[in-house]
């Protein structure tokens, strides 16, 4: 029987909408994944909540906590474990068939998002109102956060060790909060300012009450009433704000967007869309990978990845060391270094989509488009690639091979025009181990706004591509 001729390779590179070739099976899977993502995004509005939801899903899938394993435990190919850090970061693993020293396949995402953090001495009364002072977290446009409904999420931790978690503003019967803004009639001076100056950081104080306490001796009756309510409901006093982590985020669940329901509008797509896709890829693995598969969900990326729960910490290195301790004859310092250096990683982070309302900031040939697949970003950084992790061409070719083989639609893009701006991810912090790293994630419109937008098809392709990456056995050298 004569051999089939190989398909002729196209001389040109053309990006097309994924809907042109979307199979019925993929269409159904896209809707299933989108429903799951809507549930995840609505539950995981803070890094703590994203951590807890990830751990819940991992445990339901049979993953075991490394720190809870009995003494003398050993791990074998196919075993599923995770390690959590301070309730804010997680590393999950499926042990592969090959020795750890041959490297891992890592998907690294972050689970923090821009928000308003409540200060440690925040509560005050003014103008017959009680307010909470905030400090914004990450890169935001401050004017976008006024006059919208806000929800309060977080924890109080008392000196006796008791931790009180709270969420106010998400349930249908809950009250919400807001930051007031000037009416146009009195905003002549404000309107003369630049958009960056119109609302100041110290002006992002959240209105939380206006009813006075019945205590006739109190000087600040409205502030006292807020404290009375906090004591009644949560058992905390004003000093407990000092040891609290409270965050104001946009109130309300994520929603399908568009008449065709092809998009998702929600808070925190950056970077929980990639965190979800990475986690889903690991949970859907469906077999023992050649190389140990790892999903890393880190904190603090939006403020530089610093701190003990950020990518600058030794959390990943320590977690892999724990794996060595339970496999292949125990911990081996040189083996650990070799494993990290020989690893392959996708920095699973979002990129900006071309916005037809703001075309001037995009270089059209190198801008990403909605519904054209997961975005491969060879380098990030700003202007002269400052701060970039520039992936080598050999590794980019490997990722192309993997995605093409899995039918995961991808597109290549930069983050805006040269000299226009730029940005960074955790890629350079993974690259410090010597591993091969490439930025790769879901495209987003209105990034860092209280409500961001993604396409369902792009989320599907991220899930497909990430899973294939974890399962790849690498091309023979």
Q: Number of domains in the coordinates?
A: 2
How are strands sequenced across the largest beta sheet?
Answer: 1-2-3-13-4-14-20-16-18
Annotated CATH architecture of the largest domain: 3-Layer(aba) Sandwich
The gross shape turns out to be globular
Q: How many β-strand stretches? A: 22
Low-confidence stretches: none
Instruction: Compute the CA-based radius of gyration.
Output: 24 Å
Question: Helix/strand/pairing class, anyone?
Answer: alpha/beta
CATH H-level homologous superfamily name of the largest domain = Zn peptidases
CATH topology of the largest domain, by name, is Aminopeptidase
- What is the terminal separation in angstroms? 32 Å
Mean pLDDT: 95
Helix content: 25-40%
Provide a count of the helices: 11
Main beta sheet: strand number and arrangement?
9 strands, mixed
Verbal overview:
This protein has 477 residues and is of the alpha/beta class. It folds into 2 domains: 18-113 and 267-471, Zn peptidases (Aminopeptidase), CATH 3.40.630; 115-250, Aminopeptidase i, Domain 2 (Roll), CATH 2.30.250.10. Helices cover 27% and strands 23% of the residues. The protein is built from 11 helices and 22 strands. The strands form 5 sheets. It has a 9-stranded mixed sheet, with helices on both faces. Strands 8-7-10-5-6-9 form a 6-stranded antiparallel sheet. Helix 6 (269-283) packs across helix 11 (456-471).
Write the layout of secondary structure elements.
Blueprint: H1 24-43, H2 47-60, E1 64-65, E2 80-85, E3 89-94, E4 104-110, E5 115-126, E6 129-137, E7 150-157, E8 163-168, H3 188-191, H4 195-198, E9 206-209, H5 221-234, E10 244-250, E11 255-257, E12 263-266, H6 269-283, E13 292-298, H7 315-326, H8 333-341, E14 344-347, E15 351-352, E16 374-377, E17 381-382, H9 393-406, E18 410-412, E19 422-423, H10 427-431, E20 436-441, E21 443-444, E22 452-455, H11 456-471
Parallel strand pairs: 1-2, 4-13, 4-14, 14-20, 15-21, 16-18
Antiparallel strand pairs: 2-3, 3-13, 5-6, 5-10, 6-9, 7-8, 7-10, 11-12, 12-22, 16-20, 17-19
């Amino acid at each position: 029987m004569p051999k089939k001729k190989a398909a002729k390779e196209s001389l040109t590179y053309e990006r097309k909408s994924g809907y042109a070739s979307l199979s019925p099976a993929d269409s159904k899977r896209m809707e299933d994944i989108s429903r799951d993502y809507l549930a995840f995004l609505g539950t995981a509005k803070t890094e703590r909540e994203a951590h807890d939801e990830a751990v819940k899903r991992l445990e339901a899938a049979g993953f075991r906590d490394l720190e809870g394993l009995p003494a003398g435990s050993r791990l074998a190919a196919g075993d599923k474990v995770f390690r959590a850090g301070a309730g804010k970061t997680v590393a999950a693993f499926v042990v592969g068939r090959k020795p750890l020293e041959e490297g891992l396949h890592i998907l690294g995402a972050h689970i923090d998002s821009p928000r308003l953090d409540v200060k440690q001495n925040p509560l005050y009364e003014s103008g017959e109102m009680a307010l909470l002072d905030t400090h914004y977290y990450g890169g935001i446009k401050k004017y976008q956060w006024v006059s919208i409904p806000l929800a309060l999420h977080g924890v109080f931790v008392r000196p006796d060790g008791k931790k009180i978690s709270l969420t106010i503003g998400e349930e249908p019967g809950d009250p919400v909060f807001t930051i007031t803004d000037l009416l146009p009639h009195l905003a002549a001076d404000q309107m003369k300012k630049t958009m960056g100056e119109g609302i100041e950081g110290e002006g992002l104080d959240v209105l939380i009450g206006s009813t006075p306490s019945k205590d006739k001796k109190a000087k600040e009756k409205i502030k006292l009433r807020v404290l009375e309510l906090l004591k009644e409901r949560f058992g905390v006093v004003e000093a407990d704000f000092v040891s609290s982590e409270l965050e104001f985020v946009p109130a309300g669940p994520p929603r399908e967007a568009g008449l065709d329901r092809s998009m998702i509008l929600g808070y925190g797509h950056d970077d929980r869309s990639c965190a979800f896709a990475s986690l889903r890829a690991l949970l859907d693995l469906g077999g023992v990978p050649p190389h140990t598969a790892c999903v890393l969900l880190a904190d603090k990326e939006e403020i530089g990845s610093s701190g003990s729960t950020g990518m600058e910490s030794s959390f990943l290195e320590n977690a892999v060391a724990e794996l060595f301790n339970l496999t292949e004859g125990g911990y081996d310092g040189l083996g650990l270094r070799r494993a990290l250096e020989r690893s392959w990683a996708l920095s699973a982070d979002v990129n900006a989509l071309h916005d037809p309302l703001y075309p001037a900031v995009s270089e059209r040939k190198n801008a990403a488009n909605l519904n054209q697949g997961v975005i491969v970003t060879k380098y990030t950084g700003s202007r002269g690639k400052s701060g970039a992790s520039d992936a080598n061409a050999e590794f980019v070719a490997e990722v192309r091979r993997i995605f093409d083989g899995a039918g995961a639609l991808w597109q290549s893009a930069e983050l805006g025009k040269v000299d226009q701006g730029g940005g960074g991810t955790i890629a350079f912090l993974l690259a410090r181990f010597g591993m091969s790293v490439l930025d790769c994630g879901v495209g987003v419109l209105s990034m860092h706004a209280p409500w961001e937008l993604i396409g369902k098809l792009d989320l599907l392709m991220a899930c497909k591509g990430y899973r294939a990456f974890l399962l790849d056995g690498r091309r023979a050298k």
